[in-house]
Specification:
Elements: H1 4-19, E1 26-35, E2 47-48, E3 50-63, E4 68-73, E5 82-85, H2 99-110, E6 119-125, H3 135-151, H4 158-171, H5 180-186, E7 192-197, E8 202-207, E9 213-219, H6 231-246, H7 259-265, H8 272-296, H9 300-316, H10 322-333, E10 338-344, E11 351-357, H11 361-376, E12 381-385, E13 392-393
Helix pairs in contact: 2-3, 2-4, 3-4, 3-5, 4-5, 6-8, 8-9, 10-11
The protein binds alpha-D-galactopyranose (GLA).
Alpha-D-galactopyranose (GLA) binds next to helix 5.
Length: 394
């Protein structure tokens, strides 16, 4: 993989080419993320266990003296330089990729941090787009980070950037996501995953020690966007199920319930589909707590079993996997040396995350790759990944 310094040099050249010179330009990085376990729990007051990756988004940026904004992405060269202005920030209107940085400027303003001068920006990301590794949250956190550094918003913490990122995603881009992605990215720590209670935002870093195993991400290459997925629908189903339970039981979120209590009260939910959605939220939360305990005592085997159970629940109860992700997981399970395999992120396409014995990685890539191509008709991509730090300047 290209080093950060190499990317920096390359992106600065593009900056000079697009905007005339590279004088005074600063370069920042924000990672992508993968969630190890705790899926579709973050808007249900449950726990998640994601980590930041060493792949992510780079941004070269320079402030302007006027209110103009210029955006160029090396990943969408065909779109050229997109132009806008600080006076033209309308939520839910812009469908270009620049809606993510613009959403952050808007959200900063809503939170009392007025950005009063424009900037020129060049972006380059090495996260596969639409892969479910949070390329959009990465752009949001990157923007929040450079806004703080460039415009002197000193009081803002990385956690604040995550919250503003979620706010902009919800209100500017219209996706009702939870806090997991922006938090994992803004708070990332090398070789650690973040055990986050989304109800309280209390968190703890847990070292991911896999000994003789590797983290392998498989990208299904089935494209999806959260906006046109059933993401918001799942969220609404869970909210409705919770409101039905709350008619008789005083709980704030589905994450407050354990399995036994849920069993006692599930008949309050008046529709079988909603029972299954809520059951996933409750059980997945409990699995996440158990998985982190297993990891802490060095029991990777149990961690892997819980990952497998997570996938089954996402497939059968939450129904967000689909043929592509199920094929990848089924094929993975047949390879000896696979400790755990599950879909990661929102689902409906995107990626799987796998813990694979180092000695089996080549066989894994070959066997899973072949089976996927045969059944689905196009290829999957494989990434052996490392857990990296949160955002920073390069
Ligand atoms: C997306 C959302 C997150 C989370 C996951 C599912 O990545 O952005 O907030 O809900 O889906 O766990």
């Amino acid at each position: 993989m290209e080093s950060a310094q190499e990317v920096k040099n390359r992106i600065l050249e593009v900056f000079a080419d697009k905007y005339g010179s590279k004088d005074g330009v600063r370069v920042f990085f924000a990672p992508g993320r993968v969630n190890l376990i705790g899926e579709h729990t973050d808007y249900n007051g449950g726990h998640v266990f994601p980590c930041a990756l060493t792949i992510g988004t780079y941004g070269a940026v320079r402030m302007r003296d006027d209110r103009q904004l210029r955006f160029y992405s090396m990943n969408f060269e065909e779109k050229g330089v997109l132009t806008s202005s600080l006076d033209d920030m309308k939520p839910l209107e812009d469908k270009e990729w620049a809606a993510y940085p613009k959403g952050m400027i808007w959200a900063f303003g809503e939170k009392g941090y007025k950005v009063d001068k424009g900037f020129d920006l060049v972006l380059y990301g090495n996260i596969p787009n639409g892969s479910g590794l949070s390329s959009s949250a990465s752009v949001e956190v990157l923007t929040g980070y450079f806004l703080r550094e460039l415009y002197g918003f000193d009081g803002i913490t990385n956690q604040d950037i995550a919250l503003i990122g979620q706010y902009s995603e919800n209100k500017y881009n219209g996706v009702n996501c939870g806090i997991m992605d922006q938090f994992a990215i803004a708070m990332g720590k090398k070789d650690n995953a973040i055990f986050l209670d989304t109800a309280t935002l209390q968190y703890e870093y847990a070292p991911v020690v896999l000994r003789d195993a590797k983290l392998v991400i498989v990208c299904s290459n089935k494209k999806r966007g959260l906006g046109d997925s059933k993401y918001n629908e799942r969220r609404a189903e869970c909210e409705k199920a919770l409101s039905e339970i709350r008619e008789f039981l005083d709980v704030k979120t589905l994450g407050d319930l354990d399995e036994a209590t849920f069993g006692k009260f599930e008949s309050l939910i008046k529709d079988d589909v909603r029972v299954r959605r809520a059951r996933h939220a409750v059980y997945e939360n409990r699995r996440t707590v158990s998985a982190v305990e297993a990891l802490k005592r060095g029991d990777i085997k149990v961690f892997g079993q819980l990952m497998n159970a997570s996938h089954e629940s996402l497939r059968d109860d939450y129904e967000v996997t689909g043929i592509e992700l199920d094929t990848l997981v089924d094929a993975a399970r047949k390879v000896p040396g696979v400790i755990g395999a599950r879909m990661t992120g929102a689902g409906f396409g995107g990626c799987t995350v796998n813990i694979v014995k180092e000695s089996s990685v080549d066989e894994f890539i070959k066997k899973v790759g072949e089976e996927y191509l045969n059944k689905i008709g196009y290829a999957a991509d494989f990434y052996v990944v490392d857990i990296g730090d949160g955002p920073g300047e390069i």
